[in-house]
Sequence to fold (612 residues):
Amino acid sequence: MKNTFLSFEQVSLSDGFWKKWQQINAAVTVPAIYDRFAESGRFDALRLDWKEGQPHPHIFWDSDTAKWIEAAAYVIEKNGDTALIEKVDALIDLIAEHQEECGYFNSYYQQFQPEKRFTDRTDHELYCAGHLMEAAVAYHRATGKDKLLSVVCKYADYIEKIFVKEQSASFVTPGHPEIELALVRLYEETGELRYLNLARFFVNQRGLKPEQQYEWADPSYSQSHLPVREQKTAEGHSVRACYLYSGMADIARYDSDNELLNACKAIFDNIINRRMYITGGIGSAANGEAFTIDYDLPNLTAYSESCAAIALIFFAHRMLMSELDGKYSDTIERVLYNGFLSSISLDGKSFFYVNPLEINPTLLNRNRSLLDKSEHLPITQRLELFGCSCCPPNIARLMATVGGLLYSQNGNTLHIHQYMAGTAEFDGTKITQQTSYPSDGTVRILVEKYQGSEIAIRIPGWCRNWQLRVNDQPIQPRMEKGYAFFPCSSNAEILLQMEMATEIIEANPLVTENAGRAAIMRGPVVYCAEGADNGENIHSIWITDELDAEEWDSEQFGCKCLRIDAWQPAPSQSLYYPANKQPSVQKRLTLIPYFGFANRGESEMLVWLLKK
Ligand code: FUB
Ligand code: ZN
Fold:
């Protein structure tokens, strides 16, 4: 095991950007999702007594419930919320009551297709099982209660019997990966090697021979087009893909399997160099919720599902465990501050399923009326619940555990990956970060009673100028793959000062959508222009290299907002006119953090601005 992360349990965030989000998560998001799930019938479905007239259960409602339990467990772990414990226990009682003697549990199949279990690869039974396992691990760690853990262990044993020992299921690997990474977590919690073996089995079998697929999809939709070790590009449904890649990275790490790790590395590089939005969003096509081809990153119709952004964090986190490289932690940061946070409203109650980089209500409404009803176009406002509501509880479970992304250890070296105000405690050591990141780039880190001999601190890829002082003395650290290494033992005060300038970012010219356009970033935060501040027709506004940027602290968004110089062509009656004949009006353009868009009613939004 190379780099072992401190778990979120060992890290307490204090006043600051992420602490606020976690408070909203505990006070608003987790309760709100519970209420919406209860109203929609998701919890009643666990009673297995559906009657005509009630909302009809869905094949993967169990996964929604499981993800909510998992998120609640993390909140309980930190806040010891007894009312929440009662709610979770009531759900677990229902699950345990209805688990079959053999170990099987699936509220949909048991009610509606009892004789069809494990006959349809696309029907999410193993996906639901995986989420139940993750929930069980989280709840066991939070409370010590093992009722759900016993349920999922018995279920995992049954799955092993059916899929490995008897091979009596109609398929070999699940259509929706998830159980692979979940079984690894189950192994880590129980120490039972057979769960790791089962995870390895599902990873290794994928793509070995043709398997059932949705009729409209090809094998790459579920990453079954090639044996996993031969996969070098990110293909198909992006959530499935990154859950699978996370499981692959886990197995590669446990087995020291370099061939598998190299496949993960190639796929990761393909994502971040060719198939990822500037916001860290992935899966650009609504059709199949999928990756498409290199550099195909449309803004208006970006799919960029919230769950996919979260899954990319899972993948990058696991890659960091095998290899200390700033590209992984940079990606985690990019997703966290942009494509992940955009998925939730500032009040914590509503969510985006897809996260576009441009909103033009007129264009979208025109398109909606012209297009086939099945065509998916982004909505312009977040919702409290979706028919397919996989994203909200996924957001809640990651929000509660971001502290687990901050620190790892390798022998005598402590790695510091992300900057969030708070304290970590482990092996008698205490690490305190004081910072108002991402509003500014100064991070003071107090190290107390450190037993190791070295610290490696990430210098973010976005940062051009920085300084590091230890105990008030400037130091010249050894740089390796985005990390600054320096000796440190016992007590120390580290001061990292990162210059956080407003930057103009251009896309690779092969991204056709962004030709002639630029985005604005400040530190890890991507900015956007919204109609609420800037009026209409934002697509026609252009900027130059001279931004004359002014920044200010925004209470509403919890970080800086910007104002820059821009120009906009004056309105015209002509459809076409000679170049340079139309006057332009200079204006100051207000930019807000991308994650905060669509919190002030429906309006236009644009990340990639025209640039002359
Ligand atoms: O299929 C289960 C979940 O629903 C997927 O992970 C999401 O992409 C959505 O399709
Ligand atoms: Zn989702």
About this structure: Residues 60, 176, 239, 289, 305, 307, 388, 390 surround beta-L-arabinofuranose (ligand 1) (CB under 6 Å). The mean pLDDT is 96. Residues 119 and 170 are 5 Å apart (CA to CA).
